[in-house]
């Protein structure tokens, strides 16, 4: 018998996704927005793993690995953008500061 039921896992994933979405919509700090996006991606990965375990299919684990790779790339690109903003004389982490870039 599994420790968590499928419905419990879906509720946890929905809660994680809601927290991540609230973080993206409410916070203007780009680092917190990146962390919130990672929480949302982890919630989606949790749904795939739970569905794979429910129907005894390894596809959920494959999708988890793909989502994990996507999260790593998203974090790397996001941090590169933050560093580029900082190098152009914008020492702020405000997401609206990216609108002021030229060229």
From TrEMBL:
Molecular function in Gene Ontology: NADH dehydrogenase (quinone) (non-electrogenic) activity; quinone binding
Domain of life of the native organism: Bacteria
Compartments where located: Cell membrane; Membrane
Keywords (A to Z) from UniProt: Cell membrane, Membrane, NAD, Quinone, Translocase, Transmembrane, Transmembrane helix, Transport, Ubiquinone
InterPro entries in the cross-refs: NADH_UbQ_OxRdtase_chain4L/K, NUOK/Mnh_C1-like
HAMAP family from the UniProt entry: NDH1_NuoK
Family under the similarity heading: Belongs to the complex I subunit 4L family.
Self-association and partners: NDH-1 is composed of 14 different subunits. Subunits NuoA, H, J, K, L, M, N constitute the membrane sector of the complex.
The protein's name in its UniProt record: NADH-quinone oxidoreductase subunit K
Record lineage: Bacteria, Pseudomonadati, Pseudomonadota, Alphaproteobacteria, Acetobacterales
Encoding gene (name): nuoK
């Amino acid at each position: 018998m599994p420790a968590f039921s499928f419905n419990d896992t879906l509720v946890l994933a929905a809660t994680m996704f809601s927290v991540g979405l609230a973080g993206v919509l409410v916070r203007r700090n780009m680092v917190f927005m990146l962390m919130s996006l990672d929480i949302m991606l982890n919630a989606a990965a949790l749904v795939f793993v739970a569905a794979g375990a429910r129907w005894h299919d390894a596809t959920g684990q494959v999708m988890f690995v793909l989502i994990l790779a996507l999260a790593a790339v998203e974090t790397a690109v996001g941090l590169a953008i933050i560093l580029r903003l900082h190098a152009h004389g914008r020492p702020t982490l405000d997401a609206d500061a990216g609108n002021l870039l030229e060229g």
